[in-house]
UniProtKB/TrEMBL annotation:
Belongs to the zinc-containing alcohol dehydrogenase family. It holds the Pfam family ADH_N. The keyword Metal-binding applies. It comes from Pyxidicoccus fallax. Gene3D superfamilies: Medium-chain alcohol dehydrogenases, catalytic domain (3.90.180.10), NAD(P)-binding Rossmann-like Domain (3.40.50.720). This is Zinc-binding dehydrogenase. SUPFAM superfamilies: GroES-like (SSF50129), NAD(P)-binding Rossmann-fold domains (SSF51735).
Length: 317
């Protein structure tokens, strides 16, 4: 089979490798596609603690496809089932995954891309946020996750204040239900605007989806007394400083909405399947860029530079 191999920093290439066979309790999946995740940028860019070449298909973890072969003892699946799954080697034509790491996709989603891991991630962030009808929810950073969270919070009856840098992303947030769209340009001006929109009370929920210091600082400023600050951005470039006085004074609940338990991830994927299949959530417009397996370097470069209109890249087969 063909698989992408990151042989050196910024050096992904396609190689012919042995197609894996499923062991007991495993499924072999013929990939339809795999999303490209921003959390893997350091892997592609290169860091001194990574070892190259990486395993074939790594670090692809947003795959979906069709069950092609069953290992012994597998129940609840059949050849031809279309699934989303958790793995770390999905930048390849085939992958082998545990039967307990997959979710069957209904026929109503036939032909539609379904990178289950990030969709499940959005659902789990939403669940951890405990968003209720009538609340004001600020979402800082309108990319793929931010747009999905905007729609889900709006569907839940909350008023969403979308805050983001890119002008076209403000327009996207409005399409996904945001009541107010605020340019992320000036720290104090944003605080003043949110204060005006909330009669000085600020927001019951603030979700930070950027993963940088300034948005985290801003998120705390916008969270009301006894509100919840939900950290959904992936902070991977070093330690952070926080305004502990402000957190203490307002009595904030600070929630890191990243999950590591595969069972929790799978529950999020199942919830995402229900939301998308029912029409309550439509992620399709958010898949803005598609690449072949031999263009993985370009996919990661687009993820890094985020040209106008970029939200989510998919590698498709």
């Amino acid at each position: 089979m063909k698989a992408a191999v990151i042989a050196a920093p910024k050096g992904a290439r396609v190689e012919n490798v042995v197609r894996p066979d499923p062991g007991p309790g495993q499924l072999r999946v013929k990939l339809e596609g795999c999303g490209v995740c921003g959390s893997n940028l350091p892997t592609w860019e290169g860091r001194e603690w990574f070892k190259y070449p990486m395993a074939p298909g790594a670090p692809g973890h947003e795959g979906w496809g069709v069950v092609e072969s069953l290992g012994s003892g597998v129940q609840g699946y059949k050849v031809g089932d279309r699934i989303a799954f958790l793995s770390g080697n999905a930048f390849a034509e085939y992958d082998v995954v545990g039967a307990d790491s997959a979710v069957v996709l209904p026929s109503s989603l036939a032909g539609k891309p379904f990178p289950g891991e990030p969709l499940g991630c959005a659902m789990n962030i939403f669940r951890r946020g405990d968003i209720q009808p009538g609340q004001t929810v600020a979402i800082i950073g309108i990319g793929f996750l931010g747009a999905l969270l905007t729609r889900m919070a709006t569907n839940a009856g909350a008023r969403v204040l979308a805050i983001t840098r890119r002008p076209w992303a403000l327009e996207l947030a409005a399409k996904y239900g945001a009541a107010e769209c605020i340019p992320m340009d000036d720290h104090h001006r944003i605080i003043q605007r949110v204060k005006e929109l909330t009669n000085g009370d600020f927001c019951e929920r603030v979700i930070e989806v950027v993963g940088e210091q300034w948005p985290l600082d801003l998120a705390a400023e916008l969270t009301r007394e006894r509100g919840k600050l939900i950290v959904a951005g992936y902070h991977q470039d070093g330690p952070r400083q926080v305004n502990m006085w402000l957190w203490n004074w307002r009595g904030l609940d600070v929630i890191n909405a990243h999950e590591r338990d595969p069972k929790v991830y799978l529950e999020g994927i199942r919830m995402a399947v229900d939301q998308v299949a029912s029409g309550k959530l439509d992620p399709t417009p958010l898949y803005t860029h598609r690449y072949g397996l031999d263009s993985l370097n370009q996919a990661f470069e687009a993820m890094k530079t985020r040209p106008d209109g970029f939200l989510k890249a998919l590698v498709t087969f």
